[in-house]
Records
---
Amino acid sequence: MAEQEKSPLQREQQALQKPLGLKRPLSWLLFVPILFAFLVLPLLAMQVPGLFGVEHTSPDEKPQTVRAEKLPVNAHPSLQSTPVSNTRNTTALALDSIWNPGPLASAHANLEGDCQACHAGNFSRVKDESCLVCHGNMGLHVTEQTLPDTSFEEGRCASCHRDHKGRESLAEQNKHFVGADCAACHTDIKTVAPKTETLAVSDFAGDKHPAFRITVATGPEPSDLRRIRMAANTPIVEKTNLKFPHDVHLDPKGIDSPSKKVVMECANCHEPADTATGFKTLNMESHCQECHKLSFEPALPDRQVPHGPVDAVLSTVEEFYSYLALHPEERNKVNAQRAVLRARPGEKNPNRSNLRNLSGNPRAQAAFATVELFENTACAVCHEVKAVDGLGNTKTSGSRMPQYEIAEINPAHPWMPMAKFDHKAHEFESCESCHKASKSEEASDVLMPAIDGCQTCHAGSKPVLNKVQSNCGVCHEYHIHKKEVAVK
């Protein structure tokens, strides 16, 4: 058959039948150094590190204690904040790193030259014990208290967290729970955990997800947290012992401050911060005192009591008027200023009854100022205040003043501890689109949006036009951390 008549396949078969010549020896010459460099050397470095001038830690030698650095505010709660023991042996010259199948996630990038930091043993998959060296505070998916009532079994860390997939791989996996299907258990959750209060859920779309459960505080102690299921048209309240009408402060016409009328917005108090909650903690000095001054002497409006313990407030008032009694020249200045205030025509001064001359008993004057402060002008405006009988703290100068108790404010807590929410990702929306603060008259109103509000923008796991495709990992953590657990 002529050469030109042969098919391409026939010509390829004929070429393969030709003698190899030098190809075979050359392939062996290349194979041997590759085998030595990429297999023999790493194995020797792991098994006989002494050949490279490195000695393994003796089994009898105490493990090295590694001091964890101070964690950032927004660090993952699983990170170990206490000293941890490191018993691994770094492979000599990091020769095992040539087996690296791909870049580690950014959080683990510092371990790329130390394979045995995670892979304890030869050619073994990563064990949970290796992960827990750093992530010792990692919570379980089901709490230890409820685990006996379920048929749930925890999986391996690496079954969901697959590294060597790129710098951002773990962060993306954590968003979407790669390797785990939440709906496999939660669609029929009662089968897995018959006693659970969690309702069945298979997706976020429509009625496939139950109404949210909100954590509210029934008292100031951590044990006072309760979880309440939201219901349509049924408001949730949390008695905070604080008086704060959102509607008054968000009046579009503005509110009167000591100096001018001010139109307030949510951002005046709720300032973004790089924290777990996303906002800076509110405090009297930074957010309230500019308008709600703690003045007690009308003639000296800039002199204020501290925003703190009752006995510190009482001592401040008592000591001020005692000082005036002992220093006539200062008392005369205050009396002169009081006379000016009394002489102002047409001015509605709520403290006019307190503008008499300071010629009487200083303790009586201090007592009068104390009652005004606690019951009328300052404390009672925002707090639940109760007058009590008897002496106060006998170690303070205000022990003989009228005594008061201020109801303790419930500490801040996560409203949805089993979920996560990034306010920054929603900053293009107005606060009012989710939180109906301008219609709230009481501080006890829990201004948490219901699920149908979220579903206006978020679809489920299937894409929907003009909606954000959202699976379980977008809003939920898999692990339950102890500090997030509320009493049910």
---
Amino acid sequence: MNPLKLSLMLLLLAVPNACVSQGKYDRAVQDAQRARQLQLEHATRAAATAEELARQKDSANALASSLAEEQAQLRAAQADAAELQKELDDGLARKAKLEAELTRVGKSASMLTAEKGALAQSLDQAKRRLEELRKAQAAAEQRAALFRDLALKLRKMVDAGELKISLRDGRMVLQLPNEVLFDSGRTDLKPTGKDALASIAQVLKTIEKRHLQVAGHTDNVPIQNSAFASNWELSCARALAVVHFLIAQGVAPDLLSAAGYGQFDPAAGNDTPTGRQGNRRTEIVLQPNIDELVAVPEVP
């Protein structure tokens, strides 16, 4: 409102019985009240916008950190592969040198056979290590590609604060706050939870032959609900509720499993309200395939 107009209105409010009619006085009061209400609404919207921008920035930083960790693992695997390739090349050079030495000095066949046997064994071990490392590198690249693909497809949910995506112990984890899925102490999915899981299910169905574990988690506050003996039972029941819903959405049941951890696998400390809220969550964990669990032999 124009400051001059507002000042005039305040003056009119101060002297309602001077030369202003009751109707003008009432209208001035209403205009002043509306101006105050508009100021409050503008301030509220500005604060909400600032909070949303900060939350989206934190979500983007978490995704960038997870991607950087996967890329670092890929670079380490590539360095190991290069080192093993050099070892293999050196072994082949030694073999050629031994064969040339035999021709030159006429070593006994038995000695050469032993040396060549030991060298051949060493070369075979290096080849096996290199092959295993290449498999590990390929698996890491596939996991990184899958992570990027999921992050892009679920970006809207991540930006809305309904979902977090992270890498933990080589596993990709989709984390949903229990406030989105369930009411306190309940196992019935809320409408918002069903909408979120339906969107996730459409993405999960595009992943071929990837086992998924649904894991329920709680804080350490004892449950006050006669239907469940402890938080453990509640977390198991919630995980099963999510599994059944995903199956109904078309996710293959032979790829799903359910687990309940109660308060025994916290993501944050339980000594603050914020920490306890973060621990009340349901996670969908993409399990690594057996062929990704490559055991690289130790270099002797």
---
Amino acid sequence: MHVIRQMVPTRDHITALLRLALPVATVQVGFILMGAVDTIMVGHVSPRDLAAVALGNLYFFLTTSFGMGTLFALDPLVSQAFGAGDRAGIARAFQRGFVIAVGLAVLSSLLLMPGRPVLAFLRQPEEVIPIAADYALVSIPGVLAFFLFIVLRQGLQSMGRVGPIVVVIVLANAANVFFNWVLIFGNLGAPALGAVGSGWATTLSRWFMLLTLVSVAWPFLRPYLRPLRSDALMLEPLLRMCRLGVPIGIQFFLEFGVFGAIGILMGMLGTIPMASHQVAINLASVTFMMAVGVTQATTVLVGQAVGAGDSERARRSAGAGLLVAGAVMACTGAVFLSVPGFLARLYTPDLEVVGLATTLIPVAGIFQIFDGLQAVGSGVLRGVGDTLAPMLVNLVGFWLIGLPISLYLAFPGGLGPLGLWWGLASGLAAVALFLLIRVRIRFGRDLTRIAV
């Protein structure tokens, strides 16, 4: 109980969190809105194209989730260095992040190439596989831009410099709508490419985001990116940074992987379940980005406090994050429970897809609060450099509890798509509980800066 009392936030801690979390959440919501726009625009082509985008996105993020999580090692490294006033440490973290991003981009690009045989092996709908595989192929040119953008985004956020990212994400959303309008529907003389056109639009948007962020934030970034530091290429520190980041990467893969497994199982049930799942999961992803915004703000504030040697501020910042995320996700969950049919019809006019999605969206409403708490729990631990425990918690909660429940309810239990989603909710609840226990244990110990 003593640790819990130390984590109770004051008004100042909540205010500091909201001041950073609101722009970060804006960025996260803007980022996921690009995917929502893709889904909405393709949903007006055909259910097959909608299912193809769902499957293609699933394949893309399954192959890139490990790399994305690994680069989140920048969160504790940059935030703690910033809190300690260590400018050289910030520069080293940025430049090593770029080196690691290039290697991860090569790996992910290779994994994206064999789309057709992989999706066929996973018994996805035959009419969807060729389009989804082509969607994955045209995503490959954007992988490097995706990872480099993550390096810049995480580094800037960790120093509290979110303004340039907000500007970029607003511009990128406008650009993405334009690219989709041209390439999905064949406007301005372009061929009408449907779902594949959406893939090309996403690739162009990722390069647009990277180049625009470099341009907008260059005056601030320049001292950290130039000159190139020789120690940024030293193998031993790179490996130590990877040892910090790889558990986060595995955690991301396990978490996204279980959502991916549910998506694949939906595909086995048919095109309509897959399309309905995409509608519901996209809605949940949009609201989850609010929790991610709170999570990343909490990670930054906890890391900066640890770097400054202020353990009390670190603990109360962690408490503020958990409190705010729980409140925000309770509100979004209430919306999902209240108007599921209205939300489903925003995505598609197809009555079969709307009907099934309307049964899945309320389940998303119920698991919202668990999803928010588990996200912030992971972020709090990441702020102090504790990355192994969240990985193990994800393995147990999602794969040993949630997925078996999904399989049982969907198939022997006869609930089909709804059963898959109830199992997902069970896994999220288990992960949230385990992570809260770990936070209590870890924050009862000394909080010291990590060193690479």
---
Amino acid sequence: MVDDAAIQSLEDALNALVDDSDFREIDRRLARFNLFEAMGGVRAELRHSNFLAFLFSPGRAHGLGPLVLEKVLRAILSDLPTDKRPLRTLELVVADLDDALVYRERQNIDLLIELTALNLVILIENKVGASAGDGQLERYKAALAARYPHHRRLMVFLTPNGDEPDCEGFVAFSYQNLARVLEQLAAETSTPSEASLILTHYVEMLRRHVVPDDELKDLARRLYEKHREAFDFVFEARPQLQGLLETLKACALNVVGLEEDSTGANLVRFYPSRWERFGVLKCPSQKWSKTGRGLLFETMVYADGSAHLALILGPCAPDVRAHILERCKASAAFKGISKRKGEITSRLFHRELLSPELARTTDFDQQLRLASLSWSSFQGEDLMALIGEIEAFAEEIENTGSPRSTGPTEALENES
């Protein structure tokens, strides 16, 4: 039993934490409205690329002319040895960049910039959350050389931490450096107030979600050292990820015909019982699932509070895997299909059930409700089509050995 003195000590510790100026500064910076968060543009690569294309285009209505493009290019060049630069920095500084042409998704390239005055073309491959696909950078390099054989070329691999590209000729540039350049530009007195505000919002969003905010981390470390007792108590009292996982597990197992395969610390795997009749959907138990099932739905809850649902294809027989992957790629039902890099499994379907933003900005009861609603939406929109098509693919392999048309499967209904 906790005595009154201990309770009073803990209450005093919590009060001291709330009154601390560092705590109030962290709360102010994290709670402040952000335009890009409101628009859902946190880790969406397309939206980042669209915004950067807007900033880099001298003629767009941001009032900065070619200044953003010039400063970012100077930052990229400064990271390169002199002999690796396609042009001297002085050439860039004195050049007229007003004629810059900025293209989005030309030949699938995220950003392509033509600078006629410098006979220079710039390719920027933007990766916020994913890595480059196998051979992707090589293909873009070849496409650029074919389209601009007589131009000087600068190929940039833009990632949160400046990851090294796997293709010779590309140079690494980080969102951390990009944030620093834009922050300096926003602070300049010559920058129009509207542009300064937009740049500030973008940099704040980057530091909250894409790159580490070292200053904020220092504040947090200092705060923890001063108020360790209060933080430890708050940490122990936080809503557990397991509660969200259990809720999603109940959603899945409340569907007639769905059975549990296994449960881990942050995931639950389940499967339609009708798939048990297909021997081709089995895999060696020592290679992936201990149950030997080679195709499973998987619900995962991550440390940031977000929740995701996926359909995972394990290490079945190579010809079975190849057939299923080929058929899935040709079907609109399989959204988010990708191979896990360096692993023997492939993701055939992906759906976010609770975003990191909602996990951060809603209370625990709201999170449970939102995740449950997302599951219901998945069940109504996707589950039946996925089950039916997988059954059709398995029957093709086991019965005919050749593709045939697929049709709807009978409905799975909620238990009343």
